[in-house]
């Protein structure tokens, strides 16, 4: 059987195959929004994985979208570690007029590869699939199970990864190959929520004077104006969090509450009888969704009870959701890293062997699907090529040197980890 050294040499020898694969993945216009356009790329990925010995399963998601999970069963899976690699194939929306090249074709200029998704994160997906091909080409059989998830929905807060993990997919360790500039990253969490104020009655705007003038006699309120009570309560809590909370790897004040969108009223002839505020909440890795939402509700309800009208018409709350597009809500759980976990140690060794330096271990300024692995108690890390500056950008690019370096690290790690004995697979 070929050795790890043979595998690493093959990464260099067949570089053009990696670039051709990346170009093929980029050619699928899987923008989200509008989404509902990933069935074709998942069918392509399914066929490619089947060629190299993976057992595959496509899971229906939204109409036009599919999830794909694949596994290459190890030769001694009961005794050796299993590994799960995860990547999303949906990409950010494109304004073609702002691009200097065709966004759906990889264009190389020196060390840079241009194309939508090369950094976020078809570069990582291409790297994984390329390694699978080389393992097959070299006849390398891994003792431990090697698993792969090609998911969709990450760009719109849709629960692609959550759906597969909720169905019971697991492994001893998981690597999410999303944009991290080859740093080892955990993340804070994000949840969106709707806060609704609703009047029990609807009034013509001709009644406004009776509502606001001394002696008017009409106990009523404008819900858009009353929403200011809610926003001020959120601002006070946000400032309090910034003063009192900290987490290593984050600058103070990263835990924010953003009033992102507000809607209310019928038209100018009516007093607004309903208003809804859509907020985005960022929290630290050592916090959970339930505690955070309860704290916000407690703060807002207290402010409402101090208001003479709202105390009899308290706000209501709706948290999270499985899609920003379908139900206007999302959740990205947080991920705490365990630097002493054997999988992290093994990945760190592979990194050091290839790069001749230690990796930077820290926290992502954004969020990815990696948090779902923490939520389902699977040790994991976000580790991928590409920079946050390039993700979603016009003329998105990726360093070829970094992509090759990343591929070698992951090839070495896959070989070593799946050859390491563990308690379960």
From TrEMBL:
Keyword presence, Hydrolase: yes
Boundaries of every Peptidase M20 dimerisation domain copy: 219-306
Cofactor(s) demanded: Zn(2+); Co(2+)
Keyword Metal-binding annotated: yes
GO biological process terms held by the UniProt record: lysine biosynthetic process via diaminopimelate
EC number(s) recorded for this UniProt protein: 3.5.1.18
A single GO molecular function term of this UniProt record: succinyl-diaminopimelate desuccinylase activity
Catalytically driven reaction(s): N-succinyl-(2S,6S)-2,6-diaminopimelate + H2O = (2S,6S)-2,6-diaminopimelate + succinate
NCBIfam families documented for this protein: DapE-ArgE, PRK08596.1
Record's protein name: Probable succinyl-diaminopimelate desuccinylase
UniProt source species: Lentilactobacillus kefiri (Lactobacillus kefiri)
């Amino acid at each position: 059987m070929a050795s790890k050294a043979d595998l690493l040499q093959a990464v260099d020898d067949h570089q053009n195959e990696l670039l051709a694969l990346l170009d093929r993945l980029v050619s699928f216009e899987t923008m989200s929004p509008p989404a509902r356009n990933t069935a074709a790329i998942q069918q392509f990925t399914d066929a490619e994985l089947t060629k190299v010995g993976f057992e595959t399963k496509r899971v229906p998601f939204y109409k036009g979208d599919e999830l794909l999970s694949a596994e290459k069963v190890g030769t001694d899976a009961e005794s050796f570690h299993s590994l799960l690699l995860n990547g999303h194939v949906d990409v950010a929306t494109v304004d073609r007029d702002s691009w200097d090249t065709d966004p759906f074709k990889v264009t190389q200029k020196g060390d840079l590869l241009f194309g939508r998704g090369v950094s976020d994160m078809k570069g990582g997906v291409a790297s994984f699939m390329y390694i699978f091909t080389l393992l097959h080409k070299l006849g390398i059989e891994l003792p431990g199970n090697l698993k792969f998830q090609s998911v969709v929905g990450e760009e719109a807060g849709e629960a692609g990864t959550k759906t597969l993990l909720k169905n019971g997919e697991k492994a001893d360790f998981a690597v999410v190959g999303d944009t991290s500039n080859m740093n080892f990253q955990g993340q804070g969490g994000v949840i969106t929520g709707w806060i609704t104020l609703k009047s029990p009655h609807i009034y013509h705007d001709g009644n406004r004077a009776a509502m606001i003038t001394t002696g008017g006699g009409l106990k009523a309120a404008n819900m858009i104006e009353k929403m200011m009570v809610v926003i001020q309560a959120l601002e006070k809590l946000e400032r309090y969090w910034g003063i009192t909370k900290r987490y290593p790897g984050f600058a103070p004040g990263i835990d924010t509450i953003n009033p992102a969108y507000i809607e209310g009223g019928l038209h100018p002839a009516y007093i607004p009888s309903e208003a809804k505020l859509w907020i985005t909440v960022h929290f630290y890795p050592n916090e959970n969704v339930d505690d955070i939402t309860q704290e916000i509700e407690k703060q807002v309800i207290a402010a409402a009870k101090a208001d003479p009208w709202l105390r009899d018409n308290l706000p209501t709350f709706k948290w999270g959701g499985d899609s920003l597009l379908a139900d206007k809500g999302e959740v990205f759980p947080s991920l705490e890293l365990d630097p002493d976990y054997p999988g992290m140690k093994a990945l760190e060794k592979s990194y050091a062997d290839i790069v001749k330096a230690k990796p930077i271990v820290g926290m992502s300024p954004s969020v990815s699907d990696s948090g779902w692995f923490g939520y389902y108690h699977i040790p994991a890390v976000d580790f991928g090529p590409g920079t946050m500056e390039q993700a979603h950008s016009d003329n998105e690019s990726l360093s070829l040197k970094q992509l090759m370096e990343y591929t070698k690290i992951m090839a070495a790690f896959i070989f070593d980890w799946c050859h390491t004995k563990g308690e379960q697979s």
